[in-house]
Design a protein that fits this description.
3-stranded antiparallel beta sheet, alpha+beta, elongated, 15 helices
Amino acid sequence: MGQVAEAGVGQKLFHRTPHPPCWPSWEDTCVPGSLGREKAPREKPNQPTLRQPRQGPTDEAQMAAAAALARLEQKQPRARGPMSQDSIRNQVRKELRAEATVSGSPEVPGINVVPEPKEEGSTHLAVPGVYFTCPLTGATLRKDQRDAHIKEAILSHFATDPVAASIMKIHTFNKDRDRVKLGVDTIAKYLDNIHLHPEEEKYRKIKLQNKVFQERINCLEGAHEFFEAIGFQKVMLPVADKEGPEEFYVLSEAVLAQPQSLERHRERLLATEPVRATLHRQRRIFRPSPLASQFDLPGDFFNLTAEEIKREQRLRSDAVERLSVLRTKAMREKEEQRELRKYTYALLRVRLPDGCLLQGTFYARERMAAVYGFVREALLNDWLPFELLASGGQKLLEDENLALNECGLVPSALLTFSWDTAVLEDVKAAGAKPDSSILKPELLLAIEKLS
């Protein structure tokens, strides 16, 4: 049995929780005097006493223990635990912002905000939609009208020029470009053999059930119309080792007398390109406006369906998650290229020296040379050299083959027109003053207010 410790005069008594019998007390594990505490004095062994639960450490002892623990941690730093997701995101965001600042871009890499398209018909749209021009009829078409209109125009052309119409049908109606090339090359070989060997009858006949004809030519829309337009006729002829006759294309004697015509048809067939509607620039001139940099675009400018647009909006909320993944610069650039493919067209405005705005529609992958050509067509003095500057003052004609999406000009951008500095100095030296307006007068007659 243990003894009961008595408190001396002026000594405080502390309440403590008794230890289980098998646990060592706090005092038993300490070096006497190391924390400024002494053990209670023992009573004589011959006096039976009851053990009172031991007292806990004093305030001074607790402070000393905390100081010792702090010194121990300074000597042996604890390993950092795993960072929270919020900490990771904040740290990565800071690093990417710092990288963007060094590169001169104020935007955080990895987050490409997809502007939501506006409904067509809205009075605030920067452009009513995307339109095209049919090269055969000159008609202005909506995107959903162009294919049907071109097909109708080609079919109607058979009445006036069946050879040209059939060639356009071959190149336009068949979408598989590799199959078209293979078929066209085979037809050209047939015509070449006739032209080079006009005296040999075997080259003037083409068996329709021939394997090569079936696999390469028969599958092409417009191929049969072409053979008939250039003078071939379908004839049933006997075939050796066959019970019945088979169908052949046979060149007429009238065409055979003019072999040079076949050579012209062959060259035309090989040189023709598919008939495609051209993008309508929808050139517009606006008065100076503080709204020059505001663009409300219709859905035509996006290479996404309405459902895909909504999905992109939902994914924007998860964009920060991607920042928590350690990515190389090449990986980020690849992701940015995927983002750029969301845009099919680009709407550009060019602020001229007098503040007026020249606006036009372009393909997102169109080259900068097309933009310079578009601006030059509108200038009164189209022979003078000029420059186009991006929002940061960067010149855009360092590489005229650079695409608009590679220059960061999609889906819309405001550019600044600037005459070549050397040209302006020459004009001033000659005592002349630059014209207040640099656009052609007929364009200024249609100037609008930007709203």
